[in-house]
Amino acid sequence: MISDITSARDDALSRVAAASSVDEIARLDAELLGKKGALAGLKSGLGKLSTVEEKKAAGAAVNEAMSVVEEALSERRRNLGRAEREVQLAAEALDLTEFAITPRRGRAHIVTQAWERLEDVFVGLGFQVAEGPEVETDWYNFEALNMPPSHPARSMHDTFYVDHGAPGSTVLRTHTSPVQIRVMQLVQPPIYMVMPGRVFRNETTDSTHLADRRPGDRSWHHTRRSRRHHRLVHQGVLRNRLR
Amino acid sequence: MKIVDSWLRDLVALPADATVETVADTLSDVGLACESVERVGATVPGVITARVVKTERHPDAAKVHRVFLDIGDGTEHHVWCGAFNMQPGDVIPWATPGTAMPDGRLIETKPIVGIPSEGMCCSARELGLGDDHSGILILDPNTPLGLPYGDALGLAEETVYDLDVLRNRPDAYGHVGVARDLAARFDVPFSAPSSRVVADGPTRSATVEIVDGDRCPRFTSIVLSGVRVAESPDWMKSRLSAAGMRPINNVVDVSNYVMLETNQPNHAYDFDTLGGEGFRIRVARDGESMVTLDGVERTLTADDLLICDATDRPIGIAGIMGGQNTEISDTTTVVALETAYFEPHGIMKSVQRLGLRSEASARNERGIDPFGVETSIARFVELLGLTCPDLTVHDGFVDARTSSMPSATTITVRSARVGALLGREFSTDEISALITPIGFDCEADGERVLVTVPSWRPDCTLEIDIVEEVARLFGYDALGKTVPKSTVAGGLSPIQQRRRRVRDVLLGLGVSEAMPHPFLADGDLERAGLSTTAVRLVNPLVVGDDVLRTSLRPGLLKALAFNESHRRSGVALFEVGHVYPPSDDVLPAEFEALTVVLAGAEAPRAVAVWRELASAMGWGARLDQSNVPTGLHPTRSATLSAGRDVVGAVGEVHPDVLDAFDVTERVAILELNLSILLAAEPKVAHWKATSRFPSSDIDLAFTVPSSVTAEKVDKALRQSAGSLLVSLELFDVYRTDGDAESRSLAYRLRLQAADRTLTESDIANVRDKCIAAVTKLGATLRA
């Protein structure tokens, strides 16, 4: 009996040693240690032994043989697994400088980038941001701002007039100051607001001027308690905080 | 406004240590923003005058010839030169070897075909004298030889301040006005030109008859004889050139010089050609015409004011431009000098209507000093006398005034108000001390100051105007800065935050932002398949570019066409901007729009962008393919509606429109009304726990008639699956060739319960309900 156990064990160990893949180990595991395996068969034959001593000795031998085989299987599995992973890693090698198709983000317009930074500076100072229409009435754009009909800024030289309503009643806003008026009609002081926005001046286009402008210094307005505040906002803030 | 440094320093005794930089900074600080300081008339050292003796061609050098030069000292020099415009005898500027040219070249002696070339003959552009580079600059043949060319040309280096003079400073269009401010700020004497005119000849007058007194409050005339038309002195020519005016002759130059100095336009008429020896000022008759100095015939209306001679013949458009018929000529000896004050608004309207601008009209329409006439005449006489030794000023000065002459404005200024606005206390004494030097007459009255505005400052009409003067002269720098302490919480409004989020989502989807021009050309809307009803500009910058956009579509399609023409295909762009559809209201029906265009993509890409935006923003809308906006692909587009509002459209651009814009790729498009969508309170997303129990999938494929939308199937499946549905995915769409009636849609439903493992019967139940609901739509389950 003992010699059967030993030979079954040795046979199992030699097959484990000969296994060449993790998959094969899995098959061997089931075959060698499963219910139909040689060692299992010997174990079930223990009952046919006559003496208790024999049974004890043979049982211990079978258990030991099974645990030796189990250990051999797991070691072989580890080694094969490591080797297979290495083969896989080597096979998966990529040249990361080869990129054919890349997902691309969109780009915000440079004016938007500047605009949002400016807004954020004023938000940081406790300002809110107000908006208004780009096509304005003469009243909001000029009259309400103490620019009577004879004011030179109202000449065609600077203002785009819009063919809407009575002649001369509608303009493309030349500044965002009309938003100040609209805000003041709606909101009770204190008002801390900036009015960024697109403004229009009838000027010849060159590298630094486009008839349609986005906010420049003239378009940033806020209600001022004093001229000193105004200066701070115009110079201090814009110069120092936008670095 | 160009202000010449040397001129300024004649008028105000600036401290010796006031450098150009100090003056520029001070000008900016008193509110006359100095945009740049230019040095003009600088000459290149080492360039001298030389006479061309002879020129010689060489068989081995076809592109150049040898120019032999005489520099007056007996030595001979020869230069290889690539310009052929000079003849023997011509005097030209010659850069001697060793000269460093303004463009950085160092002139050296170099051989060409073995013969050394000494120095270089120079063009006007090479010497910074203009843009002419067509040939070598040819000088006056009588120019002495061997002189620095600057001396020969009478060039003097001038420093010019380019000031951005705001509309409320009409006086600063003259050197005197600028000098007055500087004198006050530097606390140095200001030497205003004298206003004393001494008549030294017998009485000789040009009569004045003002017919339309409201348009011409004051008109004066004085007769000068002994005029000899000649060249102006070099210093005057150099200052005029520096200030941007071309020297012409002594009479014209003095006229311009006086205007640039005193800000008072004037006009000298040839007295001998002045019919009836007098002036008549009246509005034009409708349709009346005259030829202005620039040689253009102008047709006038009753809005234009005319200067006529005493026989009623038009000789000038008042305050804007003189006529050709009384122009000063080389033989002029007697002139009648007009110096007048016209009502500014009328001049402005004429200028606009005629589209005729001049240095004079720019000043007259802003408002000049109605009482500056005498100074201007005195200066004219003084300066013309420099080149006309026999100049005689005739007695018989005519000063016609009407009841429309402006009267002095008096303003009450409260010192407390000044303090409140400027953030610093100002006493009445301080206020007076600051503004008296610039001509404001101050009289203290307790805590108030009664300020009389000088006649050259018609812009000052209110207390706030005086406050500005106080701030200006005190110095904005000196006022200091304080951090405004906001008492409200700063921040972006929910709409502004949502707008930023929309941008972020689109950028993340790979769409870039564009900002095309908001004005469209005639026909752009029609090409884009849109209604041509639009609001137009009255006075566009470019004729034809006068349509205010009603949609962002044309601008973006132009951008795609531009990209395509530059071999950039597959461009994805979006724009967030206002559009201005017409309305019967006070203002056009302006709203904020968003348009996304995806070149080289089909409609589903645009739908995907919409779905992603909708999910990020919590927006919802129905796709209605039965209602396709014009200009979009009729079978591949849909209107997006939320409730009763149409919030946009999605799909593809109509191939006709693409053809019209020269875009060859397909273009997927999404158009949204952000004014509606951003204003809506978005649905709030809720967190849900992940179930501990396993999920099960059901795959269902249906043959669905083409008339039944996937959206309907989707809806039926969701309703049938009820609360057990975790996700629904349309994972396959399959069309059999030749079958236009139906297609196969395959869905995967994932079911899961929060409180239990689903049983076989739960799943079968859902499956049956789903099949029944979809079958009811006319679809059949595929085996």
Unreliable spans of chain B: none
**What's the average pLDDT of chain A?**
80
| Helix content percent band of chain A | 40-55%
- In round numbers, the mean pLDDT of chain B is 91
For the structure shown, list the relevant keywords.
heterodimer, A: 243 residues, mainly alpha, BirA Bifunctional Protein, domain 2, 2 domains, two-stranded parallel ribbon, two-stranded antiparallel sheet, 8 helices, 49% helix, disordered C terminus, B: 783 residues, alpha+beta, Phenylalanyl-tRNA Synthetase, Chain B, domain 1, OB fold (Dihydrolipoamide Acetyltransferase, E2P), Phenylalanyl-tRNA Synthetase, Chain B, domain 3, 6 domains, 7-stranded mixed β-sheet, 21 helices, 38 strands, 26% strand, elongated
Summarize the helices and strands and which ones pair or pack.
The complex is a heterodimer of chains A (243) and B (783).
Chain A (H helix, E strand, L loop, with lengths): L1 H17 L3 H12 L4 H7 L7 H40 L18 H15 L3 E2 L5 E3 H4 L28 E3 L4 H10 L6 E2 L4 E2 L11 E2 L13 H15 L2
Helix pairs in contact in A: 1-4, 2-4, 3-4
Chain B lengths: L1 E3 H7 L8 H10 L3 E8 L6 E12 L2 E10 L5 E6 L9 E5 L14 E3 L2 E3 L2 E2 L27 H5 L4 E7 L10 H12 L20 E4 L7 E8 L8 H9 L7 H13 L4 E4 L7 E6 L5 E3 L5 E3 L5 E5 L4 E4 L3 E2 L12 E7 L2 H11 L4 H8 L6 H13 L6 E2 L4 E4 L8 E5 H8 L5 H8 L5 E5 L2 E5 L10 H12 L1 H4 L14 H15 L3 E2 L5 E2 L3 H4 L19 E2 L4 H13 L6 E8 L11 E9 L3 H15 L4 E3 L13 E5 L2 E8 L2 H6 L6 E7 H6 L16 E10 L4 H12 L3 E10 L7 E10 L8 H17 L3 E2 L2
Parallel strand pairs in B: 11-14, 26-29
Antiparallel strand pairs in B: 1-10, 2-10, 3-4, 3-6, 4-5, 6-9, 7-8, 12-20, 12-21, 12-22, 13-20, 14-17, 15-16, 17-18, 18-19, 23-25, 24-25, 27-28, 29-30, 30-34, 31-32, 32-33, 33-34, 35-37, 35-38, 36-37
Helix pairs in contact in B: 1-4, 6-9, 7-8, 10-12, 14-17, 20-21
